[in-house]
Amino acid sequence: MTVCYTTDRMLHFGDCDISGTAYYPAYLNLLNGVVEEFWAHIGWPWHEIIWKERWGTPTVHLSCDFSKPSFFGDRLTFRLSILKVGKSSVRLHHTIHCGDEHRWSVEQVLAASWLDTHTSMPWPAEVKAKLESLMTPPDPADRRAVAAPG
């Protein structure tokens, strides 16, 4: 899978429960910060698209799998990949590691949305082109990626 954005996050005291173990709502807050940074990295910072252009990228689907616990003081590496770009949505895959150890993974779908009407919108052409340029090529071994005959 092609990773198009990587960043690190320290797991702080406020991200953990009383035992020092990462608390899953804090994980999701960290993930949201990574996604916000990704949009700035590709040229569409949220503070500009939200305030000036009046569109946003709300999460419409989220699926998380937790492999091993993380603890206060761990440095987590977030790796973001783009799996699919639709007319008005993008499917992301995140893997989160501490060193070489896999900790959790996420599939997330964001939808382009007009903020004033809270309705779906097509991606602006330049945004769609950028997302597509970063997309992971389909795996030929994956039957879902192969077009139906005829």
Topology:
Layout: E1 5-10, H1 24-41, H2 46-53, E2 55-56, E3 59-66, E4 75-85, E5 89-98, E6 101-111, E7 113-114, E8 119-120, H3 125-133
Antiparallel strand pairs: 1-4, 2-7, 3-6, 4-5, 5-6, 7-8
Fold and architecture overview:
- With 150 residues, this protein is α+β, with helices and mostly antiparallel strands.
- Helices cover 23% and strands 35% of the residues.
- The chain has helices at residues 24-41, 46-53, 125-133, and strands at residues 5-10, 55-56, 59-66, 75-85, 89-98, 101-111, 113-114, 119-120.
- The strands form two sheets. The chain has a five-stranded antiparallel sheet. Strands 2-7-8 form a three-stranded antiparallel sheet.
- The longest helix is centred in the N-terminal third of the chain and has 18 residues, at 24-41.
- Mean pLDDT is 92; it is low at 144-150.
Report a brief summary of the structure.
The protein is 23% helix and 35% strand. The protein has 150 residues and is of the alpha+beta class. This is Acyl-CoA thioesterase.
